[in-house]
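Lab notebook page, bench 4
Experiment: in silico fold of construct C2
Operator: M.H.
Input chain length: 269 residues
Purpose: comparison with the prior construct
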Amino acid sequence: NVPPEVFRRHVALIKEAFHVIDPNQLLSGDYPTPAALITFDDGNLGYAEEALPILKEHGVPSINFLNMGPITGEVCWSGLVAFLSMQDPTLLSLRNGGARKTLSQVSEEDLEPWLTRVDREELFDQVRAFRGPVLSLQHLQALSHEPLVYLGNHLFNHYNAARLSPERLVQEYRKNQQFLDAHPRGRRLFSYPFGQPGVCQTTDTTRLLQREGASALFSAYPLPNVTRQRAVYHRVHMSASIRTLEDLYHAVLQNYVNAWLGRGPVTLS
């Protein structure tokens, strides 16, 4: 959620500070350092209309992790939860009266009382407008011919992987990957919806998705990537507050500080 002019500055800063690589180089481990891979989540329309022209100006690749459910007509799960939590703040209250839930912790069972008393189609249209436009199948067809574009797996819909059974997680992964395997720019790379630091720390989940064919997994956890060909890669959020090279270096350095302070695992390589 950054304006195009801010994104243009970000791309220039990343190019100045790093060797920008593509997913194939990442997986092979054959790339110069320091290296950066530019990633997007969710398949927003702004990627094709605003971001891609800027990336092409600079000649740098990127990967967008897609949820094919919303692209093919389903209502976006995270958009639905966010919209309903604004309508009824009690949705984020735990049933035991304890701490509030986050959006990612809301389950399908939590929403069922809401969905049984409303017109679902009318609600879903409101959610789609609230969530904002996503890429269409026609956009994805056009991206087939873009050599700087790569597409990855973000589950079929934007569910919290931690709340899915292993069977449901595999189902959501496979439904999404089926499309990606048929797309010329599709790759077997996976990004956890909601960033999922808690899930990507569990070797069982990592191994499950690797058995399904995921070559690498991506989180939004603030940890450094200090070795090549890892099982899980962590990402730096490029917020609008990053305006200079110093800001960018500080954002990357903060990952190392967090790891040094013990705010997460450092043994996932």
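Observations: Residues 77 and 158 are 5 Å apart (CA to CA). Residues 264-269 have pLDDT under 50 and may be disordered.
Next step: discuss at group meeting.
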